[in-house]
Amino acid sequence: MLASSEHIPVISLPTEDLKDPLNTPLMGSNSDPSGGFLPASRFSESQPLPAVCTDVTVIPEHEKQQLERTIANLEDEILQMRQKQRLLDERRRLALNSIIDIKGSIRVFCRVRPFLPTDRRKFHEPVTAELEKIAVKMPGGVKEFGFDRVFHKEASQEDVYAEVKPILRSALDGHNVCVLAYGQTGTGKTFTMDGVNDQPGIVPRALEELFSQSSLNELSSHTFYMSMVEVYLGNIRDLLAPKPTHKPHEVSSRCNLNIQSDPKGLIEIEGLTEVQISDLGKAKWWYNRGRRARATSWTHVNEASSRSHWWVLQATCVPSKSTI
């Protein structure tokens, strides 16, 4: 749209300066031989004048005011929705805390491992599992044990993770969360916690869940850190320690770390490597690196048994809160 002004300036010239062009001589006695006109070569050398056009969109005043009112109304709606989301988040936290208090802040699960072809069995079905109880057949009789939840041998990795998933939300809310697998060699601790490629365990699924939940919450930002440590032969080993410069091909691990307590009474490992995790890809890369540094050895029960106690520390920093 080409805009033109409503007021066109008018240039006034004195009438006496106007002469009849027909009576005006084109040449004087000392006129140029060309008759007062520029040569054709001069015309060809001259550059054409650029045409300057400006596109201006003129918004009527009443439309401008209407747009401003619409923007103000949308900003108010966004503010109200954020306040409503904060209220819902607070109610969700209270409800989750109530559920955890009802179920118990410390819950003990039992997962029955399926029998392998190499297992030796004295009984056809030595373990009978119910929802919250198992019965173990022994030479002297049957012993029963009670748990908060029992996973049958047919239970999948998804079934186990479904019971752990709610407490991960508590970690993002600023609470301390710990998932511990305990059992003798060959009972499936590593499979439950770590899993395999097509059946990931609790730790890989937890990493995905933390980043997924964090990306959905636009009201607060989270910063994630990761550390990996194991206790092997009485020593504390840092599984994410930098590789030595003289042996770049080897997986490094720093040993003989000291356990300290800070002024607040929290336990920390002095000198433990802590890396900041920006996304899920980085988290998986560091996690796989720490897994490769673990100590494994052959046993009568497991050819690649994990010969150490292993911790994956995931620190989640939220505004004015820090959890592990």
UniProtKB/TrEMBL annotation:
Coiled coil: 64-91
Domain Kinesin motor stretches: 105-324
Record keyword Iron present: no
Positions of ATP binding: G183, Q184, T185, G186, T187, G188, K189, T190
GO molecular function: ATP binding; microtubule binding; microtubule motor activity
Keyword Coiled coil: yes
Bilayer-spanning residue ranges: none
Keywords on record: ATP-binding, Coiled coil, Motor protein, Nucleotide-binding
GO terms (BP aspect): microtubule-based movement
Disordered: annotated segments: 13-43
Gene3D superfamilies per UniProt: Kinesin motor domain
SMART domains, per database record: KISc
Source taxon at top rank: Eukaryota
InterPro entries per record: Kinesin-like_fam (IPR027640), Kinesin_motor_dom (IPR001752), Kinesin_motor_dom_sf (IPR036961), P-loop_NTPase (IPR027417)
GO cellular component: microtubule cytoskeleton
Pfam families xref list: Kinesin (PF00225)
Family stated for the protein in its record: Belongs to the TRAFAC class myosin-kinesin ATPase superfamily. Kinesin family.
PANTHER family: KINESIN-LIKE PROTEIN KIN-14U, KINESIN-LIKE PROTEIN KLP-3
UniProt-recorded name of the protein: Kinesin motor domain-containing protein
Lineage: Eukaryota, Viridiplantae, Streptophyta, Embryophyta, Tracheophyta
